Amino acid sequence: MDNTPTAGRTAPDWLRWPPEAAARYRSAGYWGDEPLGDIPRRQAALRPTHTALVDGERRWSYAALAAETDRISRALRGLGLTRGDRVIVQLPNIAEFVLVWFALQRLGAVPIHAMPGHRRSEISHLARLTDAVAYVVPDRHARFDHRELAAEIRQAANAVRQVIVVGERGDHRDAVSFADLRHANPAPESPSSPAADPGPDAGDLALLLLSGGTTGTPKLIPRTHRDYAYNARAAAEICGLGPDSVYLAVLPAAFNFTLSCPGILGTLHAGGTVVLAPNPSPVTAFELIARERVTITAVNPPLVPHWLAECRESRPDLSSLRVLQVGAARLPDELARRIEPELGCRLQQVFGMAEGLLNLTRLDDPDALVHTTQGRPISPADEVLVVDRAGRPVPDGEVGELLTRGPYTLRGYYRSPGHADTHFTPDGHYRTGDLVRRLPSGHLRVVGRVKDQINRGGEKIDATEVEEHLLAHPAVTAAAVVAAPDPALGERSVAFLVCTGPPPTARELAAFLRARGLAGYKAPDRVEAVPELPLTPVGKIDKKALRARP
């Protein structure tokens, strides 16, 4: 079992902070003892009738949310799930994501956050790496039948013994309907019952997030109950969230940005209301903002021009909106300057990573900082270094790689000991791979990345992973994928291919990669055929030279 409590058992290396640091975080009040699954119960005791969750016409008070997540948790236990089990959760922005997530937390099971666009390649990797015992999917989403994918995964992955479908099971009789779980009413267990589970410890593994790293397949980021709760709580305090706050989840709920920066988790921790948007369209968002009196929401930079254009066109009622967070990629300064005068709300820039460190501009920061920087760390205990290639600190204002450690930044990737030396310094700083300038105020300005990664509108694409799939094409003998600037997406992907015979088109490659089970957004936006790939003096592909091509 990987879900090791801090008392009575030794945590694995990737879940362990040094004793001195852990004691400091506890004594300073950063780390508490409340498991994440207790949040609905605590709020139900404080404000039982207050609206906690809204999904279309469906609404849950805090009392209803606590009761339903407890009931689902008991039903999951009845299926054989137990504390420490890993469960892949691949759901869009529907209430069932929140219900399943908190039910798993109550049980002490560990949700693995899969993105809605992931397909066989990514899901099978997650199942193998984690020994996941269950997989939660919608019936269909975005014209894709997830039940078929789940059946494939269950057949191929020995550990996955249970598929739970939100919606119609169809012909998949081996799957369990979430509606049946939801309406089951197993009796609460007596605390003295042998079957009763004490629940998770705050130091246990709580969830696994996907990294957008550079190693061919996604790495998994372990987050504990106490560090993730602090992440959400600290962000919520900076944003001034309280019971009167209404957060609109526009981006996928499984994103770290949407879930806890402060997002869904921070809002519920503060006793506010979470509204789920079924799609990221500004028309949908504006209708929900007006109807539910939304006070804060979060989008990525590619959505900002669409929001500005729709606002000019339809003149929506955005009078309740106080804060628009923009993150997941760098926001151009010129767009940043337009948000407040055109949308009538305060811009808050967000720069963070699922691995931990979160930076926010403050609501009372001068406009010059809000428009040109990506914020400063949320915690006084965040340790930040900006270093040159030799690892030496650089003066403020100079570009260097960002290194960090702190009370909510990981100390190691899940079941990946090989990354200890490449991604962490000997004294425990995480190498982010981001190139930044730090101002004397502590604010960071992101200028680029060391990592071989493409940030396509907030979707992180690992070039190495895509290259491996491209090399499986019968016409491709060599491949290199690089980022190219794009005014709408921030970056788009370009594949340079050495081929035998006519090169495949971008459309043909997209179909080929889709057939191999790769998420659609990872297909190259443009394909360039070249006679050979340029090499560095040590014989590696020279991607810098490829990026320099027009």
Written account of the structure:
The structure is a single chain. Among the domains are: 184 residues, Rossmann fold (3-Layer(aba) Sandwich); 95 residues, ANL, C-terminal domain (GMP Synthetase, Chain A, domain 3), CATH 3.30.300.30. The protein contains 18 helices and 27 strands. The strands form 7 sheets. The chain has a 9-stranded mixed sheet, with helices on both faces. Strand 26, helix 17 and strand 27 form a beta-alpha-beta unit. The longest helix has 17 residues. The relative contact order is 0.10. This is AMP-binding protein.
| Assigned CATH class of the domain at 13-35 and 63-223 | Alpha Beta
Shape: globular
Average residue pLDDT: 92
Task: Report the end-to-end length measured between terminal Cα atoms.
Answer: 51 Å
| CATH fold field value of the domain at 13-35 and 63-223 | Rossmann fold
Portion in strands: 15-25%
Note the topology.
Layout: H1 19-27, H2 39-46, E1 51-55, E2 58-61, H3 62-78, E3 86-89, H4 95-107, E4 110-113, H5 120-130, E5 134-138, E6 140-141, E7 144-145, H6 146-156, E8 162-166, E9 176-177, H7 178-183, E10 205-210, E11 220-224, H8 225-238, E12 246-249, H9 256-260, H10 263-269, E13 273-276, H11 282-292, E14 296-299, H12 303-314, E15 323-326, H13 333-343, E16 346-352, E17 358-360, H14 367-372, E18 376-377, E19 383-387, E20 399-405, H15 420-423, E21 430-438, E22 444-449, E23 453-456, E24 459-462, H16 463-470, E25 476-486, E26 490-499, H17 506-515, E27 526-529, H18 543-547
Helix pairs in contact: 2-3, 3-4, 5-6, 8-10, 12-13
